[in-house]
Amino acid sequence: MRNKAMIAGFTALCLSAGAVLAQDAPQILRQDDMKQIGRAMGQLGAIAKGQKDYDPVVVEGALSTIATEAKDFTTHFPPDSQSGHDTEASPAIWENMDDFKAHADKLAAEADALLADLPADQAAVGKAMKALGANCGACHELYRVKN
After folding, report:
1. Global confidence as pTM
2. Which residues bind heme c (predicted)?
């Protein structure tokens, strides 16, 4: 009876450790970065479309998130992370890592520039969205596997 309890406890510990390790997997970390950027773009999009009122605090927070996550994003592409965890990363990333990093750097720089000269109204947020979205789209076109 004691052995069964010990085996059950050990199994639970192993499963918990596996879940923790999976959360730290580079694929999961980069997916989390993209989700954060996507949420931020969604906030900006809602303002640009007039679905939400212009709020400089929201705009600044969204742009800050985009800048921060874009700077962190490329750190999660070690050579052994080309597959697994439902990654949508294209093998082209590892073949063209400098170009891939340049796209992320450009997105971060655009977000930083917008933070320095914060869009002041709905129309300016829409213009910012076009610039940011074009960069996102170009990178996705080259470096995201289409499912």
Report:
1. 0.82
2. 136, 139-140
